[in-house]
Amino acid sequence: METLMVDRVHSSLRLFMHRNAVFLCERLCAQFPSETNVQLLATCYLHNNQPYAAYHILKGKKLPESRYLFALSCFRMNLLREAEETLCPVDEPNMEVPIGAPGHYLLGVIYRCTGRISAAAEQFTQALTLDPLLWAAYEELCILGVAEDADECFSEATALRLQQENTSTSCLENSNFANENRVLPSNVSSSLEDISPKQVKHLHANNMSEVPGYSHGRAAALHVQNSASSNVAQFDTPSPTATQTSGIMPPPLFRNAHAYQNTISGDAPTKQKANAANQPLRRKFLDEARLKRVSGRLFNQSSDSVPRRSLRLSRDTTINSNSNISQFGGNGTDHASGSRYEVIDEMCTDNIPAASSSISSADGRFFEQDKVERILSQDSKLAIGIRELLGLLRTLGEGFRLSCLFKCQEALEAYRKLPEQQFRTGWVLCQVGKAYFELVDYLEADHYFELAHRLSPCTLDGMDVYSTVLYHLNEEMRLSYLAQELISIDRLSPQAWCAVGNCFALRKDHETALKNFQRAVQLDSRFAYAHTLCGHEYSALEDYENSIKFYRCALQVDERHYNAWYGLGVVYLRQEKFEFAEHHFRRAFQINPRSSVLMCYLGMALHSLKRNEDALEMMEKAIFADKKNPLPKYQKALILLGLQRYPEALDELERLKEIAPHESSMYALMGKIYKQLNILDKAVFCFGIALDLKPPAADLAIIKSAMEKVHLPDELMEDDI
User: Fold this and answer.
1) How is residue 527 annotated by DSSP?
2) Nearest to residue 237, comparing CAs of 363, 351, 355?
3) What residue ranges do the domains of the chain occupy?
4) CA 478 to CA 293: how far, in whole Å?
5) Some GO term, biological process aspect, for this entry: which one (predicted)?
6) What is the 3-state secondary structure of 584-650?
7) Closest Cα to residue 42, out of 12, 64, 65?
8) Of 525, 526, 520, 489, which Cα lies nearest the Cα of 503?
9) Quick check: 172 pLDDT over 90?
10) Which distant-in-sequence residues (6+ apart) come within 8 Å of 209 by Cβ?
11) Residue 413, Cβ neighbours under 10 Å: how many?
């Protein structure tokens, strides 16, 4: 009953019938209240999104599987301290983390959530050491910015280690199979049925010990194996020599089986038992020529010419009587004659199994050789498969690691090395889109995100960034359609509500956008980008206090979320807290050292601090990082204007005109420089173009005032244009 119920629970879990699994497992625990059954029930509760129920039944349990499931329940209930104490008890520092790699991974996630980055990185590294194929651990290390090169993590040494581990498991299985069919002495063969199930039990325990939440499945499997161990012998095909020691007749070697049965009939079974016991001694005294002659007679005679044993005995008796030797005499000659005929008779009857054994042994050697060849072939295929898998993970891992380090061009080159069937998947295409997004190449990012969404329309990861790409491209209609589509797929996903918020932000409806971003935060408080978007909207509404609050919340979730550092820098720059602004821009720049935008804003903060030379150097780096970005060119011209290096400023603005010919602020600044150079007609011309380009309302009054005072000597607007 217990085995049947366990099997039905696992079947229900496989078929995602979680309520049915919970019901059956509750009945199971009521009838058989073992801790392994409790673990299975906790697994059902976790699958059914009832971590509180799993927490209740697992509290106080000491088995490693129970501790892991309890810690997982605590983590889902946001009881991080209790989860950490369960995985790593303070009063028992020498206790190992349960379940191996998954336990270390969970502990690393807990450390990351509580801001202990170095401890988290250590746990993720330990998990990856125990299981090199645990991609989630390597992904977390990449996010933390401390992952080693994928070539080292998924190296050839790792492939050899995985191959050895799998080969050792395969060898253990083969040794168990061989133990069941090996020729054993009589005192060992009787215990064969007791040895084999124990070895199988040990094998399954090793294989299933690292599967969290399925410890009872292991116990159920062992229960089935132990219950069936008594029937192992009758279903296994025994080896030829083992059949001789057990008294079972081997398969006949004659073409005519009936003749063979006639040959061994009579008192042959009795003889066979006696001969089986003395077979090694008898073979020692058999002459090779005699064995060859007798064996030749056995295999060369037709089935009709093989006499029965009783006929040969009567024939031998007739021969003895014709030789005037009394059959019932007591002299030594009579006994010698009887012994001679008895030896021949034994040779005729007992060498049939011996010949069968020799041929069957040859067949066994051929079978063993064939099995070894199959094992070697399987090991070769396994080695090839391991190397192919690690090669794939190596390419994906290196691309993801470079993306997390914001080395986007190198990441794109790594992703392009993937085979076509792997490159054209939703995850890879989203990573490529994010790389182009960080490179401020929104058109290419749009292309790959759209392709990813088309191939995997129900994948929501990365769609928040896709909505931001459409926001920057002013694709209002497409952004609205994307938001509605994501909401229809999953209303409880933060990515969907971020898309809705970006849609309203594009329409300058910041209050409605803020409500949608806050909805995303409510759905997932660990979603850093939603916190940052809330901060952007508060900043747009000039509510800097709440803006700072949400930016800091984002950094509590992810310390390397450079967008939040950038947002804080912008707020402090607007508040004219230039030291704070420079600090936060520099922190963002340290995380993403290739961003032209961050370089530019850091240069602006330095310029505000009157560190003009440092500011110019930073602007040069920004221009070199992205020659298509107009902002650093404009800011460089402003700095040169402040240094009264007017010709250089005009040259920079002329280069800017080639990139952004319709920027009103650029023409207003050119007019201001021409005014300083006393080239008034060009100054008026530039101010006129700036007004024609319909500048923002805040700049419109400044440009008009400067244009009206252009002919007045030494009259220049003090406000920045």
Assistant:
1) -
2) 363
3) 1-166, 559-653, 662-715
4) 95
5) cell division
6) HHHHHHHHCCCCHHHHHHHHHHHHHCCCHHHHHHHHHHHHHHCCCCHHHHHHHHHHHHHCCCHHHHH
7) 65
8) 520
9) no
10) 100, 218
11) 13
Q: Which of 532, 592, 575 lies closest to 556, judged by CA?
A: 532
CATH class of 559-653: mainly alpha
Give just the sign of the alpha carbon dihedral 151, 157, 159, 165. negative
- What's the pLDDT score for residue 372? 59
What distance, in Å, lies between the first and last C-alpha atoms of the chain?
A: 84
Cα 351 from Cα 286, distance rounded (Å) = 11
Model confidence band, residue 698 (pLDDT cutoffs 50, 70, 90): confident
Beta strands in 359-424 (DSSP E): none
pLDDT tens per residue across span 353-376 = 444 445 455 555 555 666 556 666
Instruction: Please choose, from the candidates 287, 347, 302, 337, the residue with its C-alpha nearest in 3D space to the C-alpha of residue 317.
Output: 337
Band (pLDDT 50/70/90 cuts) for residue 700 is confident
Per-residue DSSP letter, 97? P
- Under CATH, to which class is 1-166 assigned? mainly alpha
Q: Cα–Cα distance between 337 and 518 in angstroms, integer?
A: 110
Euclidean distance between CA atoms 363 and 658, whole angstroms: 86
CB 474 within 8 A of CB 506: yes
Q: Rounded to whole angstroms, how far apart are CA atoms 261 and 267?
A: 12
C-alpha to C-alpha distance for 652 and 163, rounded to whole angstroms? 61
Please report, as a single letter, which amino acid is at residue 416.
R
Long-range contacts of 313-321 (CB under 8 A, 24+ apart): 313/341, 313/345, 316/341
CB 319: neighbour CB atoms within 10 A? 12
- Cα separation of 72 and 80, whole Å? 10
pLDDT tens digits, 138-163:
999 999 999 999 988 998 888 888 88
544's tokens:
């800097």
Contact yes or no for 337/325 (Cβ under 8 A)? yes
CA nearest to 273, candidates 363, 179, 186: 186
Closest CA to 70 of 54, 90, 81: 54
Nearest to 98 by CA among 125, 120, 53, 66: 66
Residue 204 to residue 487: CA distance in whole angstroms:
45
Cα(532)–Cα(563) distance, integer angstroms: 7
Q: What single-letter amino acid sits at 240?
A: P
DSSP alpha helices (H): ranges in 278-325? Answer: 279-285, 288-300, 309-322
Alpha carbons 572 and 480: distance in angstroms, whole number: 33
pLDDT tops 50 at residue 420 = yes
Q: Check if 1-166 and 559-653 are the same fold.
A: yes
C-alpha–C-alpha distance, residues 604 and 621, integer Å:
13
Span 329-347, average pLDDT: 41
Which ranges constitute the DSSP H helices of 405-441? 408-415, 420-423, 426-438
What number of helices (H) and strands (E) belong to the chain? 41, 0
The answer to whether 468 touches 438, Cβ cutoff 8 Å, is: no
Cβ-based neighbour number of residue 286 at 10 Å: 16
Distance CA 135, CA 127 (A): 10
pTM across the whole model: 0.70
User: Amino acid identity of 165?
Assistant: E
**Is-contact 411 436, C-beta < 8 A?**
no
Q: What's 466's DSSP letter? A: H
Question: Which of 11, 9, 34 minimizes the C-alpha distance to 22?
Answer: 9
